[in-house]
Amino acid sequence: MYAQMIKSTGQGVKSLDEMEPDERAFQERINAGGKIEPKDWMPEGYRKNLIRQIGQHAHSEIVGQLPEGNWITRAPTLERKAILLAKVQDEAGHGLYLYCAAETLGVTRDDLTRDLLSGKMKYSSIFNYPTLTWADMGAVGWLVDGAAIMNQVPLQRTSYGPYARAMVRICKEESFHQRQGFDIMMKMANGTEAQRKMAQDALNRFWGPALMMFGPSDADSVHSAQSMAWKIKMNSNDELRQKFVDQTAPQAEYLGLTIPDKTCKLNAETGHYDFAQPDWDEFFDVLRGNGPCNTERLEARNKAWDDGRWVREGLLAHAAKKRSAKLAAE
Amino acid sequence: MSSPETSPYKDSEASPHGETRATEWPLWEIFIRGQHGLSHRHVGSLHAPDAEMAIKNARDVYTRRNEGVSIWAVEASDIAASSPEEKGALYEPANDKVYRHPTFFDIPDEVGAM
């Protein structure tokens, strides 16, 4: 997902009886469907876990602009270009909604940026893959945004108020993203033979990485169990992945494209699609920094930060000057 | 590849979590009034060097789809807020004043709508 492999306390979930009164009242409030707000008491583990999760999600939105930004200047028509620009601008907006939610937990924007730029904090593995053709813009919207929606819709009900509210805003905009991707895929899949091949190739390359977005099975993960008890994770990774395949496989069929997995077919008994696990060795390798674009992505973010420094500092100096001029005039 | 940690600028080195560094733009809370005559409503926050830029940034971050007709930007440090510990003292007195709600009073049906 946009936040993968988030570590929690690692100590397992305490029962209500094992908790101190503060923590117990906190957990009971969450169990009853209540929201936790920035100034409320919260366990330190909850705060740290959320900073990691929301921060990683925000970084994914920001870094996620790069693979699509790659095609803005080469979009096939002016309309496609305007749409892609709007989509990429939305991703920046999503990053900002999430950073401001994280900041309510007592971390600063610069702290988060610093940890992204130094590689200490991660972003989703999916953005370390290149976008080689225009059809990739279709595959990214359809598959990557489609997978993200699976996770983000339930997160609108997450226990932390500012995070839930950011998710509501994001979900409202996300379905535009997925539809514009599918629209590109429809055009390509029904186009010339060369276009159809390009669409199939994009599906071939993005299918595995899209399945990896949900993270490896977390059925036995103590981190996930704690996150689920705190309602900052709403579904297991396998559950969301299955839902994604069930939704996407018929769409691929509609497009006349073939999912690059011979075992992917509807199981009449379960009512769900069977499918093969993606290459988890590749996933861990990408997380370690060895994906095709890890270096390029971090370099681009660092360059943007360095090149923008004079703007940040200049505007701050200008604001200070205006403020003192105003004070002098009073 | 550099990072803010290795910044040559004296004020940009990392500070403990929770403090705004001297180079970080101040945080502004953004309030938007929607189309239909409702009050301004808090939508989120953003960083900007001054009020003018806060409003310009708010336009891009929070009203990309015609969400509003008016923007307020308030520097976060200027907002006074009640704290959760005061909850009891502030709101509990309202609980035993049920007569403030119209449903407290039984009005006979023959009186009609009231």
What does this molecule look like?
The complex is a heterodimer of chains A (330) and B (114). Chain A is mainly α and 330 residues long. Chain A is globular, with a radius of gyration of 21 Å. Chain A starts with 20 loop residues before the first helix and ends with a helix. A two-stranded antiparallel sheet of chain A has the order 1-2. Helix content of chain A is 65%, strand content 1%. Chain A has helices spanning 21-31, 44-63, 65-69, 78-103, 109-117, 135-155, 161-189, 193-212, 222-229, 237-255, 280-290, 294-307, 309-329, and strands at residues 265-266, 273-274. Chain B has 114 residues and is of the alpha+beta class. Chain B has a domain at 27-81: Ubiquitin-like (UB roll). Chain B is built from two helices and three strands, in the order ββαβα. In chain B, strands 2-1-3 form a three-stranded antiparallel β-sheet, with helices on one face. In chain B, a hairpin with a 7-residue loop joins strand 1 and strand 2 (41-47). The radius of gyration of chain B is 23 Å and the shape is elongated. The relative contact order of chain B is 0.13. Residues 1-20 of chain B have low confidence and may be disordered. Chains A and B meet through helix 4, helix 5, helix 7, helix 12 and helix 13 of A and strand 2 and helix 1 of B.
